[in-house]
Amino acid sequence: MFYNIQIFSTFYKLFHFFIDLFSNLSKIDDMKLQILGSGTILPSAFRSAAAYVVMVEDKTLLLDMGPGLLRRMAEAKIEIWDVDFIFFSHFHPDHTGDFVPFIFASKNPFGPVREKDLTIIAPVGFGEFYNGLIEVYGKWIIPERYEIHIEEMVEERRNFDVFSILTARSNHSSESIAVRIDAGGRSLVYTGDTDWSEGLIPLSEGADLLIIDTAFPDDMKTPGHLTPTEAAEIAVKAGVKRVLPTHFYPPMEDVDVAAVFAAASFMGEVIRPLDLMIIDI
After folding, report:
1. Which domains does the chain have, with CATH numbers?
2. pLDDT tens for residues 68-80?
3. CA 116, CA 48: separation in Å to the nearest integer?
4. pLDDT band per the 50, 70, 90 thresholds, residue 22
5. How many Å separate Cα 259 from the centre of its chain?
6. pLDDT of 29
7. Which of 41, 55, 163, 243 has the largest CB neighbor count within 10 A?
8. How far, rounded to the nearest angstrom, does the alpha carbon of residue 245 sit from its chain's CA centroid?
9. Residues 6+ apart with CB under 8 A from 75
10. Residues 6+ apart with CB under 8 A from 192
């Protein structure tokens, strides 16, 4: 009898060991990115302005909210009331343009009215930025059934539910920040708009995916943005596994980005962005 109990106990422990193992594996794999906007403020039939969505387990995080985001969300079948977090890299219109429509739509009585709180992670000054918008739009962008929690960050790490956020300064506007998201052993980095910045290298170190501003070809260097060769140098120095060059202005459509990264000795995968593309992290 004692022997049978020992066998049962051993199988019981093994059963729960494998349950925990597969549970943890599923959590690790349950992190996805969908591109909602890989373009710029210039009108394009196939690239909306900067916007991405990260899904970690049951949480949904938007990265920037360029004009066209709400349309892309509808195409991706992402409901506005399902969004838990929004990250803003900076306050330029091509990265914040659909924020006001998003908040306005969230309280529209002709659709499901949002009741879940919303957390906004943004550079220092976002609270003042939002208050300025309220002065213009008034009650139409003031929530009634939920609260907006604003987390202003510069260079620090904070934990949010099932993921952690690490931010660093980027080189674009005075408030600009880049972000690293870590969850379940996976990581992605989003630079937002940026020129060369040494701080992006430690922020991106070993990341599974680097989403990096690659706005103009090498022969069209523009202050505040990276060229493909500059982006490749950051990816190489940071030792990232995969890279998603993005924020393409029209001249970038003719650039073989993967070839430029290969010439810079980047050995990982280079993903050419397409709006609505889904990437497993």
Report:
1. 33-273 (3.60.15.10)
2. 999 999 999 999 9
3. 27
4. very low
5. 25
6. 55
7. 243
8. 13
9. 276
10. 50, 64, 89, 90, 95, 170, 172, 176, 177, 178, 179, 213
